[in-house]
């Protein structure tokens, strides 16, 4: 079984969401067997709103990103999660 790089976009609930705190919370809920690749990047969207771009290395198995998506969705301040790219490593 191999690994997959998953690039995700995390939208905060509002422009007032503390992104530094949100990044730390996201790092804290990454499931075992999943690794953060690089830093969590802020991407400007519009009118001061910024999304967080997270790249993770997950196992290449059915539902590989589901555990991460579920963990991130439970973090206070997260509005939604979108998978941008998936690459087999």
Automatic annotation (TrEMBL):
<dbReference type="InterPro" id="IPR014038">
    <property type="entry name" value="EF1B_bsu/dsu_GNE"/>
</dbReference>
<comment type="similarity">
    <text>Belongs to the EF-1-beta/EF-1-delta family.</text>
</comment>
<keyword id="KW-0251">Elongation factor</keyword>
<comment type="function">
    <text>Promotes the exchange of GDP for GTP in EF-1-alpha/GDP, thus allowing the regeneration of EF-1-alpha/GTP that could then be used to form the ternary complex EF-1-alpha/GTP/AAtRNA.</text>
</comment>
<keyword id="KW-0648">Protein biosynthesis</keyword>
<feature type="domain" description="Translation elongation factor EF1B beta/delta subunit guanine nucleotide exchange">
    <location>
        <begin position="3"/>
        <end position="89"/>
    </location>
</feature>
<dbReference type="InterPro" id="IPR014717">
    <property type="entry name" value="Transl_elong_EF1B/ribsomal_bS6"/>
</dbReference>
<protein>
    <recommendedName>
        <fullName>Elongation factor 1-beta</fullName>
    </recommendedName>
</protein>
<dbReference type="GO" id="GO:0003746">
    <property type="term" value="F:translation elongation factor activity"/>
</dbReference>
<dbReference type="InterPro" id="IPR036219">
    <property type="entry name" value="eEF-1beta-like_sf"/>
</dbReference>
<dbReference type="Pfam" id="PF00736">
    <property type="entry name" value="EF1_GNE"/>
</dbReference>
<dbReference type="InterPro" id="IPR004542">
    <property type="entry name" value="Transl_elong_EF1B_B_arc"/>
</dbReference>
